[in-house]
């Protein structure tokens, strides 16, 4: 009897109080706790690597490439999220003086190092290409900033735009700047009396900066190339 009593006591002791068995502890508990930390570290490293790759392949910095033109960067690839075109004509001494080709395109034209969001392709004379990932407005003043930075990268002078300067042309006291804006809405060229730097660039807009005299009225027509 004593032996049976001891066996029953041993069984009760093994089951614990209330007749329940003690919980079984997993030997791999600490390893399971470390697993989420390890996975999180790997994901964080991958995210950091992707960010570094993106900025290395799409953006330039002051130490590796051209500086910004105001708030406009120079990206290694042309942007396509927003893409439209506006025209700029400079009329001086009664004739159109085309703006330089490749404004805003840095490096060799066959293999450019970067493109400002506002630039000019040689194949499309006097046409500003607005190609940007940002949903924002750009002005004629922004384009002249790009033109200035692009010039200075080649050791050329700034490109001002005000009542007495249009690019490298300095107006004499006898001359005046007349500005026309044609929105391609059927109304034709309209005189713009404000600061020309504030003109917002819009799709198929034609901006004419005319230095008078002589006065060319209406300003010379402009036709966008097919497909633009």
Protein architecture, described:
By secondary structure, the protein is an alpha+beta fold. It has a domain at 74-212. Helix content is 25%, strand content 25%. The protein is built from three helices and 13 strands; from the N terminus they run H-H-E-E-E-E-E-E-E-H-E-E-E-E-E-E. It has helices spanning 2-15, 29-58, 140-152, and strands at 74-75, 82-92, 95-96, 105-108, 111-116, 118-119, 127-132, 161-162, 165-166, 169-170, 176-182, 190-192, 205-212.
Question: What's the topology here?
Answer:
Layout: H1 2-15, H2 29-58, E1 74-75, E2 82-92, E3 95-96, E4 105-108, E5 111-116, E6 118-119, E7 127-132, H3 140-152, E8 161-162, E9 165-166, E10 169-170, E11 176-182, E12 190-192, E13 205-212
Parallel strand pairs: 2-13
Antiparallel strand pairs: 1-5, 2-3, 2-7, 4-5, 6-7, 8-9, 9-10, 11-12, 11-13
Short description:
The chain is α+β, with helices and mostly antiparallel strands and 228 residues long.
List the defining traits of the structure above.
228 residues, 7-stranded mixed sheet, 3-stranded antiparallel sheet, disordered N terminus
Assign an overall shape. Answer: globular
Q: In sequence order, what are the helices and strands, one letter per element?
A: HHEEEEEEEHEEEEEE
- Helix fraction, binned, reads 25-40%
The value of Rg in angstroms is 34 Å
Runs in which pLDDT lies below 50 for 5 or more consecutive residues are: 1-18, 49-64
Strand content: 25-35%
Mean pLDDT: 82
Number of strands: 13
Strand pairing plus helix content: what structural class? alpha+beta
User: How many H/I helical runs?
Assistant: 3
